[in-house]
């Protein structure tokens, strides 16, 4: 059968529509179902091969999977782009319209969730048998709009449409208990939960490159436990009967919108336990189907904890081993540890999860007992070591560390800081436990998929092997002196910039000059990421341009994108200031097209795929020591943008790979930052030493950008004078000067393009395939089942 007939059949039999009456949505779902059928073949074959090989399986537990759209992944990984395009032409449908109709699966806040999605793509491409486990949130990250420049949040509703990629698994249901009490009889513990909800599995196949391997992303949805309710109901306990239904309705309802700030809410703890417990039960059931010795579990199961959110996995696994398999506590703890590993994603103290013992005891009484046993065992072995239980709190970082056989940081610098700061004492006791695995990005989405013009140029030059072996890009380095190639490389970037300009024109009514430097900062809005410093530099540049309007300025477009956590008021003020400044500068006829600011609302994965290929300059300007890694930084450099950045996170390693001459470095180092904070009045001193900064702060404080509400930004400016914890003021001059060096470099287009090309050609190491091979080798002891086909995996 042809793909055309397949699609028409799906339209007819799955959607009940004929071609005459089908909407874009109908066509999109019909096409998705046809593609899903293809994936199922790979998926079944992989499942069979996994059972036959009985290898170690990897379980990636993550509260977030920031997937974005799936349709283009499916089309390109199945190598069906040409076929789909041709078929849609036959059917009189527009490919782009259909592809863009899919809503983003925005089940994550930022880097941590996107990393999990890149890892799923690499695990499948490498043929490593793996499951991703998470929550099937009914509402993903909120949608952002601006009203008079201020962020407005509204609920995200991706599941009001049919999610064509998933399969509901009513047979994979588990009862998840909460609360109640624990009885002890003859040395055994019996937990009697006070409420129960059901976890139902929804599976999305994740197919790797070429359709060679397929894994599963299994997301849990909460459902009322009906039989339990009926029992309470019959007992006349009407409140208990309703409770499980109410809990079930809320538990998988919505993603918490905080990235690196902890909310400490009871519902959040319930979400964490809900998906962790379901995942552990599920993987144990799978294991016990083919194995009878529970003590061999670590030979077949590797569980990765994506930050501390699933750290309750430690006590949960111990609970099952002790209470259900009668393994003694002192044996159960090290057995569980052999299965578990923990990735730390931040050093920010406000992000480190702690739950009050009181809350933990109320929601998970048996787990609190087990946490005390874990604490006791560790203190007995290492007297005086850091405690899990401190000041009436359960510290999840310490719990995760103590229950993991490996703990990893996400960049070289971050890993050093993990050893020196948050886990310094635990590191002394367990000196081989902390290791580094620098983050990576999938080249399938972040070059092949998002940047077709560069993809074609590269493939025409070096063949297609780079898609699964990104280090092959180094072959492009020799092209830096090839004028024809440089011209083609420049033309590809220009095409992407023109496309972006069309999009901003259509969506925001602003067109951009494709000859201007496109300078992009897209990420969550956070003080440590210093969008404010970028904006202050923009205002300073504007002042200089107006002072000297006839000078030969390098035209710039400043592009911002990102959401603020709804309760993070300083971040929301920064958003409002960006929009207020944009309104004034964009209306200025003196500077005109030489300086523009655009801030498209509702930044998400799909928007990143549009903006990154069109960027000339990538803003990676966090206060040194604060950005654990960054992964956007990698996406930009891979797509031929130059970075302006600090020595923070993975910037350090990016600079080493691309060469310091192809990277705009500025600012204090992590050590200097810590040192500077000990100087009394460092911010005021920095401002007094910088007339340019003084002038900008004066303008903002006077209401230049909010004439009808001149005191609007007094708080923000006052904060810079008095606290400035993130050293915006101290790094400002160095940042401004480095921006002017970028201006100068941009005026030599051939040289700029050569530098950009070296960036692209040097980014092979940042493939998430490399990262996953590192985890497989150093943490999981897992292997590729398809490695014969893929060649080297080491
Ligand atoms: C997050 O995206 C990150 C860290 C978090 O700490 C939480 C969230 Cl939601 C709890 C980010 C880091 O900020 C970023 O530097 C890093 O690249 C990313 O995780 C992936 O490791």
UniProtKB/TrEMBL annotation:
Any one of the GO CC terms: cytoplasm
NCBIfam families for this protein: P_ylase
The answer to whether the entry has keyword Cytoplasm is yes
Q: Where in the cell is it found?
A: Cytoplasm
Which PROSITE patterns does the entry mention?
PHOSPHORYLASE
Which keywords has UniProt assigned to this entry? Allosteric enzyme, Carbohydrate metabolism, Cytoplasm, Glycosyltransferase, Pyridoxal phosphate, Transferase
Q: What is this protein called?
A: Alpha-1,4 glucan phosphorylase
């Amino acid at each position: 059968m042809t793909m055309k007939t397949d699609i028409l059949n799906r339209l007819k039999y799955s959607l009940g529509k004929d071609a005459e009456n089908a909407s874009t949505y109908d066509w999109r779902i019909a096409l998705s179902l046809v593609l899903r059928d293809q994936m199922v073949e790979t998926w079944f074959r992989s499942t069979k091969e996994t059972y036959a090989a009985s290898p170690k399986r990897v379980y990636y537990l993550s509260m977030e999977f920031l997937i974005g759209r799936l349709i283009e992944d499916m089309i390109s990984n199945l190598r069906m782009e040409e076929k789909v395009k041709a078929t849609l032409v036959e059917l009189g449908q527009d490919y782009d319209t259909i592809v863009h109709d899919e809503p983003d699966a925005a089940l994550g806040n930022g880097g941590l969730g996107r990393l999990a999605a890149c890892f799923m793509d690499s695990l499948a491409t490498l043929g490593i048998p793996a499951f991703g486990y998470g929550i099937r949130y009914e509402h993903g990250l909120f949608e952002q709009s601006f009203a008079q420049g201020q962020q407005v949040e509204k609920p995200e509703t991706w599941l009001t449409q049919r999610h064509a990629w998933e399969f509901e698994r009513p047979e994979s249901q588990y009862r998840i208990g909460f609360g109640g009490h624990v009885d002890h009889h003859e040395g055994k513990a019996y937990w009697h939960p006070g409420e129960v909800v059901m976890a139902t599995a929804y599976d999305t196949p994740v197919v790797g490159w070429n359709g060679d391997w397929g894994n599963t992303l299994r997301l849990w949805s909460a459902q009322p436990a009906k039989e339990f309710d009926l029992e309470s109901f019959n007992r006349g306990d009407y409140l208990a009967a309703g409770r499980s239904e109410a809990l079930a309705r809320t538990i998988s309802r919505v993603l918490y919108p905080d990235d690196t700030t902890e909310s400490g809410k009871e519902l959040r703890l319930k979400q964490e336990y809900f998906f962790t417990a379901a995942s552990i039960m599920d993987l144990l059931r799978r294991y016990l189907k083919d194995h009878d010795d529970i003590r061999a579990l670590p030979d077949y199961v590797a569980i990765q904890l994506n930050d501390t959110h699933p750290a309750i996995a430690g006590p949960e696994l111990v609970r099952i081993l002790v209470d259900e398999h009668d393994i003694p506590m002192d044996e159960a703890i090290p057995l569980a540890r052999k299965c578990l590993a923990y990735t730390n994603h931040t050093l920010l103290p406000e992000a480190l999860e702690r739950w009050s013992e009181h809350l933990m005891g109320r929601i998970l009484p048996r787990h609190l007992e087990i946490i005390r046993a874990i604490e006791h065992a560790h203190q007995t072995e290492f007297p005086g070591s850091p405690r899990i239980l401190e000041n009436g709190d359960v510290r999840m970082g310490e719990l995760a560390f103590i229950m993991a056989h490996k703990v990893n940081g996400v960049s070289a610098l971050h890993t050093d800081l993990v050893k020196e700061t948050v886990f310094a004492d635990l590191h002394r006791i367990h000196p081989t436990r902390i290791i580094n695995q620098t983050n990576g990005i999938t080249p399938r989405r972040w070059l092949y998929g998002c940047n077709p013009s560069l993809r074609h140029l590269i493939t025409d030059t070096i063949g297609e092997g780079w898609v699964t072996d990104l280090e092959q890009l180094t072959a492009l380095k020799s092209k830096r002196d090839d004028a024809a190639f440089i011209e083609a490389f420049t033309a590809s970037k220009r095409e992407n910039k023109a496309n972006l300009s069309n999009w901003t024109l259509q969506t925001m009514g602003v067109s951009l000059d494709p000859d201007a430097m496109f300078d992009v900062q897209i990420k969550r809005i956070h003080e440590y990421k210093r969008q404010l410093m970028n904006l202050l530099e923009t205002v300073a540049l504007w002042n200089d341009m107006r002072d000297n309007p006839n000078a030969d300025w390098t035209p710039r477009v400043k592009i911002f994108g990102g959401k603020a956590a709804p309760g993070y008021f300083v971040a929301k003020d920064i958003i409002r200031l960006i929009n207020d400044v944009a309104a004034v500068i964009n209306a200025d006829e003196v500077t005109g097209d030489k300086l523009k600011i655009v801030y498209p609302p509702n930044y998400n994965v799909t928007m990143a795929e549009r903006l990154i290929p069109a960027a000339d300059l990538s803003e990676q300007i966090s206060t040194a020591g604060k950005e654990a890694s960054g992964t956007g930084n990698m996406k930009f450099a891979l797509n031929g943008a130059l970075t302006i950045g600090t020595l923070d996170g993975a910037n350090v390693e990016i600079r080493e790979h691309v060469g310091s001459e192809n990277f705009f470095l500025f600012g204090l180092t992590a050590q200097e930052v810590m040192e500077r904070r000990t100087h009394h009045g460092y911010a005021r001193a920095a401002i007094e030493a910088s007339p340019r900064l003084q002038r900008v702060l004066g303008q903002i404080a006077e209401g230049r950008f909010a004439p009808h509400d001149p005191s609007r930004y007094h708080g923000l400016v006052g904060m810079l004078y008095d606290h400035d914890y993130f050293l915006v003021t101290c790094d400002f001059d160095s940042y401004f000067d480095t921006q002017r060096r970028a201006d100068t470099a941009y005026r030599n287009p051939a040289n700029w393009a050569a530098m950009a090309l070296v960036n692209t050609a040097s980014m092979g190491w940042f493939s998430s395939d490399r990262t996953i091979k590192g985890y497989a080798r150093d943490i999981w002891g897992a292997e590729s089942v398809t490695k014969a086909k893929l060649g080297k995996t080491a």
